[in-house]
Specification:
- α1 links the parallel β1 and β2.
- This protein has eight helices and four strands.
- The protein starts with 6 loop residues before the first strand and ends with a helix.
- Helix content is 50%, strand content 8%.
- The chain is α+β, with helices and mostly antiparallel strands.
- The longest helix has 23 residues.
- It folds into two domains: 101 residues, Glutaredoxin, CATH 3.40.30.10; 101 residues, Up-down Bundle (Glutathione S-transferase Yfyf (Class Pi), Chain A, domain 2), CATH 1.20.1050.
- Strands 2-1-3-4 form a four-stranded mixed β-sheet, with helices on one face.
Length: 215
């Protein structure tokens, strides 16, 4: 593998980088991990040159730096089509794939964060918020889960969409930021038994344990 082809993964095991770790394990290509710490190396000039936000995750690959979890998942899926994690452009499934990927990065993320902070738009101003209301977002998310007619968000086809949106559902259930709906629980139960998901959790949990042991 040439230097430009190397995948460099910038992360912290207690971050959204866990989503990208799982995605990398699903892709099945070798990658190098750079663990950064909050408030120190994550804000260093060297890393700010990679991501001016000073946040993880980020991936460098083929001379390109990609940040934001949804974008990284989409990039990796397209960069390694042999993994079968994204529909091709001329595949009708490409539409719902992109639709729900951007839904997760936009309305869902915004609504869940706003609710957690007590900053949801009042009912008379809901039209100004991209998510409308929290209830609308949750109902749309449940529709995405149940309407596919299969175990995954694209029916019988597992994709990067499941990694990204499924991670948000899993965290929502774990931290009680999403309601405990049967459709969400059943989907998450299938999702997190995937071998790549288990491997990713084990890797990041081991990093956390090693950091705690050294502190």
């Amino acid at each position: 593998m040439s230097q430009s082809d190397e995948i460099v993964f910038y992360t912290n095991p207690m971050s959204r980088g866990r989503i990208v770790r799982w995605m990398l394990e699903e892709v099945g290509q070798p990658y190098r991990t750079v663990v950064l710490e909050y408030g120190t190396t994550m804000k260093s000039p060297e890393y700010l040159a990679i991501n001016p936000m000073g946040k993880v995750p980020a991936v460098s690959h083929r001379g390109v730096t990609v940040t934001e979890c949804a974008a990284i998942c989409a990039w990796l899926a397209d960069a390694f089509p042999e993994a079968g994690l994204a529909p091709a452009f001329d595949d009708p499934a490409r539409g719902p794939y992109l639709r729900w990927m951007f839904f997760g990065a936009g309305p869902l993320e915004a609504a869940v964060t706003a609710k957690a902070l007590g900053l949801l738009a009042p009912a008379d101003k809901a039209g100004m918020a991209g998510y409308g209301s929290f209830e609308q977002v949750v109902d749309a998310l449940e529709h995405a889960v149940v309407s596919s007619g299969g175990p995954w968000l694209l029916g019988d086809r597992f994709s990067a969409l499941d990694v990204y949106l499924g991670s948000q559902i899993g965290w929502g259930l774990q931290f009680k930021s999403l309601p405990d709906r049967d459709a969400f629980k059943a989907y998450a139960g299938r999702l997190f038994q995937r071998p790549a998901a288990i491997r990713a959790r084990e890797i990041d949990d081991a990093l956390i344990a090693a950091a705690n042991a050294g502190s």
